[in-house]
Amino acid sequence: MNILLAGASGQLGQELYTQLARMGHITGVDRLVGQEGAIKQDLTELGQVEAMLDRLQPDLVVNAAAYTAVDQAENEPSIAFGLNAELPGCLARWCRSNERFLLHYSTDYIFDGSAREPYKEDHRPGPLNVYGESKLAGEWAVGASGCEHVILRTSWVYSTHGSNFVLSMLKLAQQRPDLSIVSDQVGCPTWARNLAQTSSVVLQQALDNRSDAELQGIFHYCDNSVTSWYEFARLIFERATELKLLTQMPKLRSIRSADYPQVAGRPAYSVLDTRRICKKFGLQPPSLEESLKSCLKELVA
User: Per DSSP, what are the bridge partners of residue 157?
Assistant: First the structure.
């Protein structure tokens, strides 16, 4: 199988390389930074993207490319929509025309955070920011194309590389003795490794049973722990200190979102209901505790 991986140099893209390699030959593509062996391509130039697809003729397209700078998106909506909505629409239309399969990723930020129980796949969306609006538009573009596809919505992704909360907290802990962390935003931190492994399981089953419509469409996946940014930071520092990534824990202070104003609004409650994907694909999401410890051990190594 020939596989095109868009966003190959991102934190999810790098994890997907290992998983997708078991399924076939991967051609990685990235907008700005070319990973070794990957094609450097501006993914906002849709004409060039279509020409690349025609040239490479992938059997499977995996889109891990995204504009994820939530606050910056408020000032750069056209760029955010270009990567998060127009690109997946372009990929999906090509897949429809050529009878190929698409895996695309979306986010918990398509919801407004007002729910009191985990969000199911059919819950009404209501994004609070441009980033969420652009990701929702991407979902709609993929669905409207009519191509065979899976969309995986996920949340609070972290890894040993790229830009994410875990690495930011470790860096700040080395610079400041005291940190104030928001405690009234709740979600499910997800290790990119687990998301990539889940993607592999989903793809293999969906591709082996392409006539089964229940194995396509939108699914929620996140790791199996609900926490706040404050509690997540506390756990990061505790485990990092145990593993000697940090010499000592910084002092933490719990604050409200209102005390830490940001350009873009964030949902207060971002917990995704994963029961559908677990039932359809026989999955059991790991806990934050075990996943974070494995991730930090890789940083030590």
Answer: 190
